[in-house]
Amino acid sequence: MSVNSIKMNRRSFLGSAAAAAVFSSMPSAFAQETPIRVGGTLPLTGPLAGVGAIHKLAANVFVEQINAKGGILGRKVEFVLLDDQSLPANARTLYERLVTADKVDLLMGPYGTSSIIAAMGVAQRFKKLLIQSSLGDPSLAPYPLQFPSLPIGPEPHLTDSEVVLDAYTSLPNPPKTIAFITSKFPSALTIAKGGQEVAERRGIENVLSLEYEFGTKDFGAIANRIKAADSDLLWSGAIGMEAVQLLDAMSRIDYQPRNQFYLFPAPGPTAAHPKANGLTSLTWFEAQEPFLSYPGAQEFVTAYNNSAKAAGFPYPRTEYQAAVEFAAWQILAAAAEGAGKFDDAAMAAWLRSNTVETVVGPRTFEGKFNAGKQSTKLKQVQGNDWVTVWPTEFRPAEAKFLAP
Q1: 262 CB-side CA count, 13 A
Q2: What is the pLDDT of residues 186-216, one digit of tens each?
Q3: pTM of the model as a whole
Q4: pLDDT the model gives residue 319
Q5: What dihedral angle (degrees, nearest 10) is formed by the CA atoms of 231, 234, 235, 237?
Q6: Which of 42, 95, 94, 38 lies closest to 321 in space, CA to CA?
Q7: Longest dimension (CA), the chain
Q8: Which parts of the sequence belong to the Leucine-binding protein domain (predicted)?
Q9: Quick one: which of 262, 200, 208, 268 has its CA closest to 237?
Q10: Positive or negative, the Cα torsion across 87, 213, 379, 274?
Q11: Contact 282, 17 (CB under 8 A)
């Protein structure tokens, strides 16, 4: 072989080696540019679809905003969303698919206690972080890698009703009797039982305790029982559209409770109901001060309201259902940025030791069930809109707690 031939072969080898080095580095470079895929389900159909649409829109607002800012750790976010049809069994199957078949990088929790518990079982099996926004009974969530955006504290079965009854006790004629009507939806049932305990401790007479199956549509017989009891305060563990259906049923028999509270109603249809003025519900965010002072809140409210109007939502205004979903995504992003990597265990460890600034206020995860401190408020329908009325420091300056 000639010297020139050897030189040519050497140059060819070096060129090939350089090319191989370049190409071998390209997948790593491209990997940095691929989106971070976050998988989850929501009830886009079924009895919880109205609330599911709110959570979907809030998630989309977050993804759009974070991607406009460059994503998380330099990677854009892609939300891989599936419809669980309001069925916990579907949620379990779909989260398994998201982890094993779709191979998403991170998980975001579904809506509703039963579906969250179902998803949590999958997350625990695969040791995945699970941020969730709507678990009503923290005692059902001992999994150490789950973190709630909803600041209900570790014992909402007691503290939620404490807030409600504190507010009503402040009225000129506080209730002396109470009726408990609740869905058997797990969190609603647990909170109702806790509410009965709180009412008894305060000396408020419980004149009716009634449970019904989740998904009930005919509330005629229940409305008659409520009218017969005629309590000073109706405590309803209604979920979604159940509140509207119960209001309709009471209207048909010409009955209006003197005071009425609903646990987790669909916000828009409930506020718009002609018999809703004065009824109350729980809240953790409304589009008013001081909530709007939380980091990112005003930007979120503007974007969400515009998107809700464009989508034709019946209540195109931001309230706590949208806010806690957005906050869940803020927590997920903060955990990744804080840990410096998309690693479930490292992100969970960072969350346990740090405070996350969210649109529902600062979130910490100390104590049982990673629940942190409770920050529950009471809101009231006033003129087809929701107004925070309790505690008083969260009440707008011009607002009052309407008495019957």
Answers
A1: 25
A2: 999 999 999 999 999 999 999 999 999 998 9
A3: 0.89
A4: 94
A5: 130
A6: 42
A7: 109
A8: 35-382
A9: 262
A10: positive
A11: no
Identify the bridge partners of residue 152 per DSSP, sorted by sequence position.
Answer: 374
Q: CA angle, 225 as apex, 193 and 171 as ends, to 5°?
A: 65
Bridge-based pairing state of the strands 361-363 and 106-108:
unpaired
What does pLDDT average to over the chain? 92
Query: Is 160 within 8 Å of 195 (Cβ atoms)?
Result: yes
Q: How far apart are CA 354 and CA 339, in angstroms?
A: 11
Give the tokens for residue 228.
């017969």
Q: How far apart are CA 265 and CA 398, in angstroms?
A: 25
Count of beta carbons in the 10 Å neighbourhood of residue 36: 19
Let me know: does 251 contact 275? Beta carbons within 8 Å: yes
Q: Residue 6 — very low, low, confident or very high, per pLDDT cuts 50/70/90?
A: very low
397: exposed, middle or buried (C-beta count within 10 Å: 0-12, 13-18, 19+)? Answer: exposed
List, in sequence order, every residue forming a beta bridge with 233; answer none if it has no partner. 178
Give the pLDDT band (50/70/90) at residue 354: very high
Structure tokens at 383: 């003129």
Question: Does residue 164 contact residue 191 with C-beta atoms inside 8 Å?
Answer: no
Amino acid at 251: S
The one-letter amino acid at 111: Y
Q: Is the peptide bond before 257 cis (omega within 30 degrees of 0)?
A: no
d(CA 270, CA 50): 12
> Within 13 Å, how many C-alpha atoms sit on residue 237's CB side?
30
Cβ atoms within 10 Å of 361's Cβ, excluding its own: 20
